[in-house]
């Protein structure tokens, strides 16, 4: 691997707790190559969201190294787009204006903001709803706006925390299709947190299974399925076998060592 897009080495994080510091992340070592799609899976509380928010620069860590393109991550930046499960749209702005707002904050002119926002609303197939307010959009549509917003300032990395977790199964599949299409056409590095093992296998090049107590990397799986992916692959024996192995790793890592 040349200089990794993301390099995490010996990273540790403690949260203050009632019974003393709580070791949330222990000695995390992880490298993501340019354009790689990597999912983090693991039992609730193993530190997936903590790790993602540290990479986003939204919170700090206590020990270790965290680099993007070889340079330290010291806070949030336009090189990393973030999408959360909650849509985080501004309710008083339309879909188009929500995307423009992020671009204006990045210092672009009004004309540039309008054109780039329009192009990204189109990228997520929402042109017909560009002038709708969040309250007029379904959950899947709101998440399309959030993805358009995160991609609009052309980040090198997309960080997604359970982005489809609140959606019904059909919408979730549609969003997975959309994300793979965007990723295959535009290629960027993605770090994706999910509880859904099928989703992780379907989307990823590599799956990192984390374990609990303390949160750590427990197992790693390379997804050998060809690309472009399609929903028919989900029924293939290779897909099902990998899904089983990932689930077994999550189960094995779900028991707190200290309990
Ligand atoms: N701000 C905080 N202060 C104290 N403890 C925290 C804080 N945020 C998370 N934790 C604790 O750190 C551990 C890891 O939490 P985190 O949310 O990162 O796990 P997760 O794997 O993303 O869980 P889930 O799948 O349920 O979202 C948990 O024990 C959680 O209670």
What this model shows, in words?
- The chain has helices spanning 48-56, 95-105, 110-123, 139-152, 169-186, 197-203, 237-252; strands at 6-15, 22-32, 37-42, 63-68, 71-72, 80-83, 157-161, 189-193, 206-211, 216-222.
- Strands 6-7-8-3-9-10 form a six-stranded mixed sheet, sandwiched between helices. The chain has a four-stranded antiparallel sheet with strand order 2-1-4-5, covered by helices on one side.
- A hairpin with a 4-residue loop joins strand 9 and strand 10 (216-222).
- The radius of gyration is 18 Å and the shape is globular.
- It is built from seven helices and ten strands.
- It folds into two domains: 1-79 and 157-259, Rossmann fold, CATH 3.40.50.300; 87-154, no CATH class.
- With 259 residues, it is α/β, with parallel strands linked by helices.
- Bound molecules: adenosine-5'-triphosphate (ATP).
Number of domains as seen in the coordinates: 2
Number of strands: 10
Low-confidence stretches: none
What is the CATH domain class of the largest domain? Alpha Beta
Count the DSSP helices.
7
How do the SSEs run, as a string of H and E? EEEHEEEHHHEHEHEEH
CATH-defined architecture of the largest domain: 3-Layer(aba) Sandwich
Query: CATH-wise, what's the superfamily of the largest domain?
Result: P-loop containing nucleotide triphosphate hydrolases
Strand order of the largest sheet: 6-7-8-3-9-10
Q: What are the bound molecules? A: adenosine-5'-triphosphate
Helix content: 25-40%
What name is given to the CATH topology of the largest domain? Rossmann fold
GO molecular function: ATP binding; ATP hydrolysis activity
Family: Belongs to the ABC transporter superfamily.
Pfam families: ABC_tran
Keywords: ATP-binding, Nucleotide-binding, Transport
